[in-house]
Amino acid sequence: MEANQQIKTTAVKGTDTARLVRAMVKNIYQSAHEAKANGQKVAYMMVASQYDEILRAMDIVPLPTENYAGLCAAKRDMDRFLLKAEADGYSQVLCSYARIGLGFDSLRKELGHIPEGSPDGGMPVPDMMLGSSAVCDPRFKWFQATSRFLAAPTFGMDVVAPPPQADLNEVRDYYIKYQRDQLLGLIEFLEKQTGKKMDKERLWEAIRLGDKAWQIWYDIDRLRVAVPSPMPSQDHFSIMVAGHYYSGTQIAVDFYQKLYDEVKYKVDNKIGVIADEKYRILYGGGLPPWHTLWIFNYFESFGAVFVIENVYRGFDPVEVPSHVKDPVDYLAWRAFLRFTRYHEKARAHSGNPIVEKLLGLIDDYKIDGVVFHACRSCRATTIGQTHIKSELGKYTSIPMMQLVSDMVDLRDYSEAQWKAQISAFIEALEGREKG
What we know:
It is a single chain. The chain has 435 residues and is of the alpha/beta class. The chain has 17 helices and eight strands. The chain has helices at 21-37, 52-57, 65-74, 79-87, 96-111, 138-146, 168-194, 200-223, 233-245, 250-268, 295-300, 327-339, 343-348, 353-364, 379-382, 385-392, 415-434; strands at residues 42-45, 61-64, 128-132, 154-157, 279-285, 304-309, 369-375, 400-405. It has a four-stranded parallel beta sheet, with helices on both faces. Strands 6-5-7-8 form a four-stranded parallel beta sheet, with helices on both faces. Mean pLDDT is 95; it is low at 1-6.
């Protein structure tokens, strides 16, 4: 499919600040091209890998390959990259983010230049690729496979958390030391690639900015408990760009402060996303359908607003002990605390941290129904969804629904099927309201 600007894919936003994100996304790729032209190092990187502040402290320009796949889908210019990867032998069930990235890099090598008309100017050849085990295994192997198409040094970093059954007091030191060693290995790799040493004071400053931005983001989400909803999930899937791709910068802090002020104003003046909010929906899990984000507005036509979500969220704030004085130690502690935030609650109740988090959201945000999105090519966010839905059903009787497609591959999406499912879901919400 050629790029088609006439097809509506994106959603109407609920806040003015969220509309500023488009320029921020463009700047990600423009900055990478400018960095290459100026001799600055550019790195392919993965979201939520806990190393963002390290890159900023070392003046390495991050180039988020997963985000680029979502951008291609929003622009409906993903098929040529998906089909190229599949022609190269990659299965259609492999992560479609990875297939777009692999297809793009393959085409760029084959053509000798960035494919014509690539969204936002395409991705330049990186100076290095930073894989990560966080979230899923393709993120660890993707950049190794990309080496078929470019000769950039690759580092794969392990990001791990203990299982919910573990006694945190017993395993804490082991996991934090392991994470610290992984971060130190990454820093050693980056120092070799850049030819300069890590400046700990600069790293502390990036951490300070990163924590501040994520704290404001968390405060924004706490404002969203208000009825009517001041900010919908479609805005979240835009504004997460600042936290995940500008972490460790003043840009992210300023953006979230601006958004906080707008959302606070809406709450104080009881301004909702829509005029008549009937149902409050939780986006329970699964990557968003970047190719069809307008579906959130379709729900709104029935008075249903997605008021909070459990994907691409900012991490809840954590308190690293005051005795931690080294910035790398701090990052290791922070990662451990972030990933085990709901472990103790799970051990005392359902046994599942995700279930505990969702139950908390259902209660806090006065949720009337839950919608999951099963992405055919994303095992990490799809496997277990049915189980989580079933476990939730033990503690709540609100209607739940699972839509099926893919995050960027449109071939797995059926508009007619979705609308039929949504109609039945709305009927269940109406029936519960009358009952």
